[in-house]
Amino acid sequence: MNKYLLLIAGAASFMLLASASSCNNDVENAPEVAVEKVEQEVQEALPEADPTPLGQKAKISTKFGDITVLLYDATPKHRDNFIKLAKEGYYDGLLFHRVMKNFMIQGGDPESKDATAGQMLGGGGPGYTVPAEFVDTLLHLKGALAAARQPDQVNPEKASSGSQYYIVHGRTFPVNQLLQMEQKRNIGVDSANQFHYTPQQLEAYTTIGGAPFLDGEYTVFGEVLEGLNIVDSIAAVRTQRDRPLEDIEMTVTLIEEN
């Protein structure tokens, strides 16, 4: 069983269902006036840019080219774990074993090394998990680096896989759908602790795109700095049951800056 894939698969289904039902569910639909107001606020607030996150850089090399990622200091447990595994050469020779265009590309399963064609992958790891590190400013925008995990029923703390990660490919979302997701996320949450997208975040999801339905569910611990075109190339490969028909191996190295 692909134990680290179950919730991500469910999220993909939700993404499709949300698109199909967004016009039919009166409870979830945001009023048009409210949407127009938010869109106006988004435009007025665009000059304000979020500060660039700090952290360690790493390079994920594939046959399509290199992807340079930044590991956030804001998620130190995930940053340090990824650094540790990279130094050990843990990721070298592993596959991007699960690819879903307009959603994400996933790798880091040690069982994918020298895996036979058609072998079911996604259940492996280093034998430990990493505690969740949710940060409201770190979202599942296109190029986000995030950790896979087991489903809620066996993992209520939402702890991350010790090694499996994914890079968001994603798609764009309209403001009204983002407001619906925001509303769902705040069900049962007191007003003082509710989550609300900033105008910049709404603008990013409507223009850059991503996978907003994963926000607050999986830990985002980095982002692609260079090589989004490589992510696009990997996302476009032919697959069978989401596994690429041709193996896409990775090598991960840390980038040391003077």
Describe the structure concisely.
With 258 residues, the chain is α+β, with helices and mostly antiparallel strands. The protein contains 6 helices and 11 strands. The protein has a single domain, classed as Cyclophilin.
Round the mean pLDDT to the nearest integer and report it: 85
Query: What's the structural domain tally?
Result: 1
Residue fraction in strands: 15-25%
- At the first level of CATH, the class is Mainly Beta
Spatial separation of the terminal alpha carbons? 44 Å
Secondary-structure element sequence? HHEEHEEEEEHHEHEEE
How many beta strands in the DSSP annotation? 11
Task: Give me the secondary-structure topology.
Elements: H1 6-21, H2 32-45, E1 55-62, E2 65-72, H3 76-88, E3 98-100, E4 104-107, E5 129-130, E6 144-149, E7 160-168, H4 175-185, H5 199-207, E8 220-226, H6 228-235, E9 239-240, E10 243-244, E11 251-255
Antiparallel strand pairs: 1-2, 1-11, 2-8, 3-4, 4-7, 5-7, 6-7, 6-8, 9-10
Structure, explained:
The chain is of the alpha+beta class. The chain has a single domain, classed as Beta Barrel (Cyclophilin), CATH 2.40.100.10. The protein is 28% helix and 22% strand. It has six helices and eleven strands. A hairpin with a 3-residue loop joins strand 3 and strand 4. The relative contact order is 0.24.
